[in-house]
Hints:
Blueprint (H helix, E strand, L loop, with lengths): L19 H12 L3 E2 H4 L5 H6 L4 E4 L3 E2 L9 E2 L9 H12 L3 E6 L10 H14 L4 E5 L7 H9 L4 E3 L9 H4 L5 H14 L4 E8 L5 H13 L4 E6 L16 H13 L4 E4 L9 H8 L10
Parallel strand pairs: 2-5, 3-4, 5-6, 6-7, 7-8, 8-9, 9-10
Antiparallel strand pairs: 1-2
Helix pairs in contact: 4-5, 5-6, 6-8
Amino acid sequence: MTTPAGPRPEWLKVRFPTGPGYGHVQDLMRSKDLHTVCEEARCPNIGECWNRGTATFMILGDICTRSCGFCAVTTGRPSGLDRGEPGRVAVAVERMGLRHAVITSVNRDELADGGAAIFAETIRQIRRLSPGTTAELLIPDFKGDRGALSTVMAAGPDILGHNVETIPRLYRQVRPQAIYERSLGVLAAAKELGPGSLTKSGLMLGLGETADEVIAVFDDLARHNVDVVTIGQYLRPTPQHLPIERYWTPQEFAALARAAHDRGFRHVESGPLVRSSYHAEEQAGHAGANVQAPAAG
């Protein structure tokens, strides 16, 4: 077995989250009883993003029915469904003045549609209050249910994201309740059902994969017509999660970005601190989504 990586290198060190923008976003989320993946997944970029006035909403509660080896979100048995959540997310988007809203969720495998109807209603509520705001969804696989995916795509997300997360060889350890080919199928079906939407997927590195294996995933994503790819470093959220096998250097991330660009993706975001929603508004604009410019004055 590979010896786990040592201390975090300088290029992965971030400031402690604080500041007026951070406090404003935190207060708004608390007042609306909303969750963010920024907090629940212990994202290292939370200070930067919240101080910029952006956040990634996590709907369908904060308890996940799956137990991925990399994720800090609580695993358990969720109860109930909050029908008022989409409206509260929309109010928060409006108050934050977001031009591009990113919404993800926990897995809700106990629901017949995996929570697809709540995703769709969240888009509808955002567009009701903020008609100029583009919407990006980062969805679970819905266990491959095409009907659930159809519900989401009928709402017309500007970007539909679903992360493959890692290479096929590591799925049993990293995503034990997921199937690599099923995730590819979700991305392909999203493009079929919503040809006007961009599709997006992401990988995290540092779990024992090789560069050749990562590039093979790029090839698979390109064959499934994915538009945007993100590549970042896995950071172990607690000692109970999978160990970091190694830290990939900024230079290696740059080389992978070049390899991904060679496969024809519309946009590639690659770097140690990159996450699916990191600088998502800029990613969307580069990929061709119709993100509006800020109002003058």
